[in-house]
């Protein structure tokens, strides 16, 4: 049986598990290549931030998936840098030493706060991950349903997310199946084509 729960700020023991699951599920992703310490710092930021959070899915007490989200995404990274500047600087330096080409992408990631500003209040689904061994059990949809349930659509206009537009058909279809509508497509400075989706509530 799948159990879905919103983590409390004191549930810091999950951070290691979440970060390791991210690395297993997304071995080739940019954030994964920044290393385990970077991921632990990032996800701890979601847990600590008053306007953000993490939802977890467990099967028999074992982590099977998670969502990281923020109700103030335009301020999230700036706040994270203020609280964890030394850790991020150290992690980023190690990553750039290993992969010098990462420097430009890191700068872009930390400018995300400015890019995420929108006129209306919204919730950003920043990261969703399901253990590859637990795929096919509807865990991703259950995690999204929980995020929908805890989102007050009288306050927030929609849930927002971004994903790759190319060679990513299954993921794009998954979001549309879960009620998300394509808001726009755009190309990043790294020439990566992205789709932005929104869920407006029922």
TrEMBL record:
Cite the N-acetyltransferase domain residue spans from the record.
4-202
The residue range of the signal peptide is none
Annotated InterPro entries: Acyl_CoA_acyltransferase, GNAT_dom, NAT_camello-type
> Which keywords, in A-to-Z order, does the entry hold?
Transferase
The reply on keyword Glycosyltransferase is no
Domain of life according to the entry? Bacteria
Instruction: Please name the Gene3D superfamilies in this protein's record.
Output: 3.40.630.30
PANTHER family annotated for this entry? GNAT FAMILY N-ACETYLTRANSFERASE, LD18367P
Q: What is the name attached to this protein's record?
A: GNAT family N-acetyltransferase
Naturally occurring in which organism (per UniProt) = Faecalicatena fissicatena
């Amino acid at each position: 049986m799948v159990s879905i729960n919103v983590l409390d700020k004191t549930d810091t023991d999950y951070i290691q598990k979440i970060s390791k699951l991210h690395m297993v599920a997304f071995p080739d992703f940019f954030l994964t290549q920044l290393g385990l310490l970077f991921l632990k710092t990032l996800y701890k930021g979601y847990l600590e931030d008053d306007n953000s959070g993490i939802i977890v899915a467990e099967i028999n007490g074992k982590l099977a998936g998670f969502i990281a989200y923020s109700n103030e995404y335009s301020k999230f990274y700036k706040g994270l840098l203020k609280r964890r500047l030394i850790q991020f600087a150290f992690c980023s330096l190690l990553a750039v030493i290993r992969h010098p080409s990462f420097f430009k992408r890191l700068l872009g990631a930390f400018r995300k706060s400015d890019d995420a500003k929108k006129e209306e209040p919204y919730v950003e689904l920043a990261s969703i991950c399901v253990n590859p061994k637990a795929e096919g059990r509807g865990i991703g949809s259950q995690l999204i349903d929980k995020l929908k349930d805890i989102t007050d659509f009288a306050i927030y206009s929609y849930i927002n997310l971004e994903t790759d537009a190319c060679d990513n058909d299954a993921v794009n279809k998954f979001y549309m199946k879960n009620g998300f509508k394509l808001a726009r497509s755009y190309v990043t400075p790294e020439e990566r084509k992205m789709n932005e989706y929104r869920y407006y509530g029922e």
